[in-house]
Amino acid sequence: MKKLCIYVLVIAFAFSVLNVNMGCNQVVASPNLNIESPAVLLMELNSGQVLYEKDADTPHRPASVTKIMTMLLAFEALDAKKLHLEDSISISANAAGMGGSQVYLEEGETQTFQDLLKCMIVSSANDAATAVGEAIAGSEESFVALMNKRAKQLGMEHTHFENACGLEAKGHEMSARDIAILSRELLLNHPEVTDYTTIWMDSIVHKTKRGESEFGLANTNKFLKKYNGANGLKTGYTSAAGFSMSATATREGTTLIAVVMGAKTKDIRYSDAAKLLDYGFANCSIYEDKKVLDGTTTWNISDGVKKQIAIKAKAPFRYVFIGESSDKKIEKKWVAIKNCAPIHKGDIVAKIEYKQGGKVLGHANVVALETVEKQKYRHALCKIFEQYIHIY
If you average pLDDT over residues 289-300, what whole number do you get? Predict the structure, then answer.
């Protein structure tokens, strides 16, 4: 009897280790990709769907991956017309004094905002990143406050910045999930960033009191030449942080974001990023519905000065299938959110829920295209008066 119990325990243990399928269609949520880095995350760009993660919420030192936030705020400043690419920026003593990776900017030197972006994104220059931050906010301290404010707005719960460039500082940290969220925000709203991240070699001209001299720029992201479809986004390294990166790649219209943090070597960083991207491209299929509303253009409301308002889908619906079939019928269902005035332009009034075989895949938001006031006593009187005039 004792031997029988031992055999049963051994068999049960073997099945648990080997994950043997005992007749149920079990999908392994976390396949063994032999990831060596302590924290990683793989995300599909358009849907924001996480395809793989490992210890993704633990904060780590991000090193120069920090500059993704500086890049985002720079492009947002350009969109807001607070700065222009051709603007001439004077380099401060603070920016010129940044150590680590740099392009050796000098105090009082002037560079265009565009060239500073190039130095920061291509060569990961700490002096250029600091100069960009100062140009946007007036001082590095004020810019860091903007960085932390923007991180909170994006829901980056495990992030805190102490500087604009990623030099070692106590409390300066990010999680793999937060880096993916940040990378997605940058790529979705400012896809032109890849015009910079894919530059392999370039140069700037130093303009100082001693005259002009050309300085070569070489891309620090060697993954661009190692992986088919790679187009960004940012690498980082310090001896304390290890090797990290947000690696982005696009194939056949699908863009994936692979975040790797704290790798022991550069080769491990690139290898883990490739494993994540290979897994994503090999196993994911994208379902996209660009006609979310199927021709519907109005939404009925009550208690308003109008009975209908114009509506639109906020964005197409996308879902990423991983190791699952996307061939089964997908059903759509309207779910009312707001159908009573007052309604303001941009309010979410409904959502379209997508289901497959009873499983909710997600939803697409439907927004109002106009503002409608709540009907008041005076509106009712006006309508009665209008009807009276029409009759007589």
Answer: 94
pLDDT in tens, 139-198: 999 999 999 999 999 999 999 999 999 999 999 999 999 999 999 999 999 999 999 999
- Contact 232/221 with Cβ under 8 angstroms? yes
Q: 334-375 pLDDT, tens per residue? A: 999 999 999 999 999 999 999 998 889 999 999 999 999 998
Give the length of the chain: 392
Q: Is 124 a catalytic residue?
A: yes
Please report, in angstroms and rounded to a whole number, the separation of the first and last CA atoms in the chain: 102
Contacts 24+ apart (CB under 8 A), 293-301: 293/352, 293/366, 294/332, 299/339, 299/349, 299/350, 299/366, 299/368, 300/339, 301/339, 301/340, 301/341, 301/343, 301/349, 301/372
Digit-coded pLDDT (tens) for 14-70: 333 333 332 222 233 468 899 999 999 999 999 999 999 999 999 999 999 999 999
Q: Is 148 exposed, middle or buried (0-12, 13-18, 19+ CB in 10 A)?
A: middle
> Does residue 67 carry a catalytic annotation?
yes
Out of 37, 47, 54, 64, the active site residue is 64
With 70 as the cut, is the pLDDT of residue 321 above it? Answer: yes
**Is residue 359 annotated as a catalytic residue, yes or no?**
no
Q: What is the full DSSP assignment across 231-277?
A: EEEEEEEETTTEEEEEEEEEETTEEEEEEEEEESSHHHHHHHHHHHH
Q: Of the residues 124, 183, 244, 246, which is catalytic?
A: 124
Q: H helices within the chain, ranges in order? A: 2-18, 67-79, 93-96, 113-123, 126-137, 140-153, 176-189, 194-197, 266-283, 377-391
Q: Which of 54, 67, 234, 351 is catalytic?
A: 67
- The rounded distance, in Å, linking the Cα atoms of 79 and 336 is 34
